[in-house]
Each structure stands twice: as C-alpha cells, then as structure tokens.
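Example record

The entry below shows one chain as it appears in the dataset: sequence first, then structure tokens.
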Amino acid sequence: MLKAKAPPGYLTDWADAPELTAGRKNTGLTVPVLAPAWVRFVLVDELPKSRINIHIQGYNSSGETLQYPRDTILTRPLLANFRTGLLWVINDQGVEKASTVFVQPAPLDTVTVRIPF
C-alpha cells in the first residue's frame, strides 16, 4: 500500500491508497491525497463556574479528555468535504450529558464548535 502526505496536512486515505504488487514494476500508479480542514472547539465556562470533565472525539484521533477545563480553545485536524460527527460528553459530578454536531468543512477551512458548560 502506498500513501502520501504533504503540508499543511494533505494525506492519502487508507481506503484510496493503491496497493503495490511485490516483484512487479507497479507503473502508472496514482496516489490520491485529501485536503485537510480543521475544527476549532471553543470551550466556554459560563457562570456559575464549573468543575467538569469533558471528552471530545470525532476528528482525526481517538479523542481526548480534559479535566476541569476553563475557557479553552482546541484546534484539531479533519478531512475536508466529509460529513463528520463531532461528539462531546460533559461529566458534571457523575452526571453525563452527551452532545453531537455534524460538520462538513471545505478544504483548508476551519469550522468552529462552541461548547458552553
């Protein structure tokens, strides 16, 4: 399998990567790359101030958990032109509240998702 990547985040999706055959010349290969996009999560700790944990996922990673965030901005990569579900779970003293938003960012664009808590 042959994959490519280039700045600022172009990459080949596993499903689109051409396979190479051992012992062959493998000529005429085309290696497609997808354009990147980004999601900007804006975490807003509204009054009264909270001590929560938040888990965020849905971008090019398995996600991450933040312990007691304050007003925070996170920027994470996505693949452009794909409808992607972004999920976050806020745990407030053992009570969990999940939310999802779907985005489909244009190539080299950034979408902003505001998460108040």
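Notes for this example: The chain has no helices and nine strands. The chain has a mean pLDDT of 93.
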